[in-house]
Amino acid sequence: MEDKYILQTKELVKTYKIDTPSPVFALKGINLQLQKSEFVALMGRSGSGKSTFLHQIALLDRPTSGYIEIDGIDVAKLTEKERSEFRLKKLGYVFQDYALIPELNLYENIALPMMALGQRKAQYDKDVLEIVERVGLHGRENNLPSELSGGEQQRVSIARAIVNKPQILFADEPTANLDSEAAAVVLNIMRELVDKYGQTIIMVTHEPDDKKYVDRAIWLKDGKLKNEQ
Amino acid sequence: MFSNVKLSIFLAIKTILRGDKGSLILTVLIMLVVFLNLMFVDAIFKGITATMNSGKINYQYGEVIIEPEEGDKYIKNTNDVIDAIQDFYYVSSVAPHLRTGGMLKNDKYNDGRDVAEFSAGIIGINPQIENKSVDLKSHMIEGRYLQEGDYDKAILGSDLAGGYGSSVFPDDLEGVRTGDKITVDYDNDVTREYEIVGIYKTKNFDVDSKMIVLQDDLNSVLGTTNESSEIIVRLTDKNLSKQALADFAKINLGQYAIADWEEKLSFGQTINKSFDMIGSILRVIGSLVAGLVIFIIIFVDIVNRRKQIGILKAIGIPESAVMYSYVIRGMFYTLLGVIFGFMLMNFGVIGFFRSHPIDFPMGDMVPVIKKEALRMSVILFIIAGLIGSFIPAVKEVRKKILTLMR
Q: What are the chain A neighbours of B321 within 8 Å (beta carbons)?
């Protein structure tokens, strides 16, 4: 496979209840290539397999069969510990429900991956504050998640996801819980990350309007890629 | 590894400090009660044995007791013996006793028809020096203590007098009161009448079943001079009793039977060992309960934070860091339980029982915390806490990310 792709999958299959008389085929052999600095939307109806696909390529789950390569590495060969380290160093995540740690303030939530990397505050302080500024939350560093709006929490979630400068940012329906105004802010930030900083983003969404923010949309239907637009 | 521990400590501290304060207080309270329970039962047992021992030492044997050799009736030249042992720096006081037996008779209505009889031990003392060794004076429940010149006067133990509350003796003199006169038929056929000037109660049944008269009085009955049946030796520290035994043997007291309180309390020692064994068993059971409580607390905590664990794992926080953060929290609850439990026990419970001792048949009992027992309880409790928090943490943290995040 060629190195120009940041992510590639080949014949990716995910089957649930595999040892039962009626196994569920969630993914039926997906082939996908993603270039660096691409903003891709995974779209499809509920149950189409878009979230399942995201979980496999984001290393949150293991596929039943098939090949996944991220940044030139065959991730199937990684042990659980190596996958964890890989996620920490090379991937970023934004979840639908923000997934912030309620007892940590905005600054601490964002700095958490840097702490896990063993960095001292002096090393990451500047980066964290710069990212806080970038997502428009300067001055709110000491606020707990409960003191922020949904849109603000999602911006913190994005900040946490990019603080360690990941190769790919995965976003699972990041605007599903937001009103249209907050959703637009979040999507604009993500677009800016791609345009200004060359971030690669894969986003699961069911909002057709979100297409205008992405470089391309990939449609899934019944566990297969439908077409590309 | 170090950064993982640092991160675990950071996560644990933040969740403790910024988490729900009510839950924190409730959790620590539960741990406190479990630890208190662990210590309390043991402290009660230790208190009972301490009460039994101190009763025997303070009113009966002293720390060291000198008796005639087998076959001899009295210690000859008692004053010389006392002079010899009083020179040791750790001897605080010495009290010779003359002992004999007799049939005590209480003619309740002075008509010779309704006479209560009871065979009992009679002790002759010198009130002036006795007071320094055996404190019966502060245990008078009626009348007064013996004084110099109290010839033909006596004080009675409450169990012997009768009518002063529950007694382990089936029989007594059926209610002798201060001012009553009783007759004593001594074993050597001498008969004397005594006026009872006081009744004492120590709750030591061996002591409370005796009659006490002046030593001079008993000398005249027994025909003895400068002789005693036993010499009670009080030491400044009961742990010096073995040294005293060795020293006394060196000054030609070898012709007497000298024993320390431990030898005299051999029956009590058996009880002590039994209590120690029961205490140890209860401690282990208590620790298992503590471990189970911590397990449940941490397990419920983790179940409530399952999604959070999934998130932490998803963003690449090492499993070990997440796991240790829960173990640290468990240990934090455990240590607070130990600290507050000990403080409440030492300053609250023990303090309360010091001012309101438990009325036991063998004396007023105050729970006692022994250093060794406390150390063992703390170690067992911490081990229980460690295991109780480690198991659920490992069990949950090792689950798949998507299972945790659902």
A: 116
* Confidence check: pLDDT of B171 > 90: no
User: Average per-residue pLDDT in chain B?
Assistant: 88
Q: According to the model, what pLDDT value does residue B169 have?
A: 64
Q: What percent of chain A has pLDDT over 90?
A: 80
Q: Closest partner residue to A116 among B17, B19, B316, by Cβ?
A: B316
Query: How far apart are the C-alpha atoms of B317 and B67, rounded to whole Å?
Result: 76
pLDDT band for position A1 (cuts 50, 70, 90): very low
Which of the listed ranges A105-109, A123-127, B156-160, B360-364 does the model predict with the highest average pLDDT? Answer: A105-109
Q: How many CA atoms lie within 13 A of B16 on its CB side?
A: 20
Query: What chain A residue is nearest to B305 in terms of C-alpha separation?
Result: A101
Is B114 a residue whose pLDDT tops 60? yes
State residue A106 phi and psi, 5-degree precision: -55, -50
Mean pLDDT for A62-88 is: 93
Give the mean pLDDT of A136-144. 94
Bridge pairing between strands A65-70 and A73-74: antiparallel
Token look-up 């000398």 returns B219
Determine the pLDDT at residue A23.
Answer: 82
Q: Using a CB-CB distance cutoff of 8 angstroms, which residues of chain B are in contact with residue A80?
A: 319
What are A167-221's pLDDT values in tens digits?
999 999 999 889 999 999 999 999 999 999 999 999 999 888 899 999 999 999 9
CB neighbour class for B17 (10 Å; exposed up to 12, middle 13-18, buried from 19): exposed
Q: Which residues of B touch A (CB under 8 A)?
A: 2-3, 6-7, 10-11, 14-15, 17-19, 307-308, 311-319, 321, 400-402, 405
Least confident residue range of B79-83, B215-219, B287-291, B351-355: B287-291
Asked whether residue A229 carries a pLDDT value surpassing 70, the answer given is no
What is the rounded distance in angstroms from the CA atom of residue B385 to the CA atom of residue B332? 9
Question: Which of A79, A86, A101 to substitute to test the interface with B, most B CBs within 10 Å?
Answer: A101
**3-class secondary structure for chain B?**
CHHHHHHHHHHHHHHHHHCCHHHHHHHHHHHHHHHHHHHHHHHHHHHHHHHHHHHHHHHHHECEEEECCCCCCCECCHHHHHHHHHCCCCEEEEEEEEEEEEEEEEECCCCCCCEEEEEEEEEEECHHHHHHHCCCHHHEEEECCCCCCCCCEEEEEHHHHCCCCCCCCCCCCCCCCCCCEEEEEECCCCEEEEEEEEEECCCCCCCCCEEEEEHHHHHHHHCCCCCECEEEEEECCHHHHHHHHHHHHHCCCCCCEEEEHHHHCHHHHHHHHHHHHHHHHHHHHHHHHHHHHHHHHHHHHHHHCHHHHHHHHHCCCCHHHHHHHHHHHHHHHHHHHHHHHHHHHHHHHHHHHHHCCEEECCEEECCCCCHHHHHHHHHHHHHHHHHHHHHHHHHHHCCCHHHHHC
| Separation CA B70–CA B258 (nearest Å) | 11
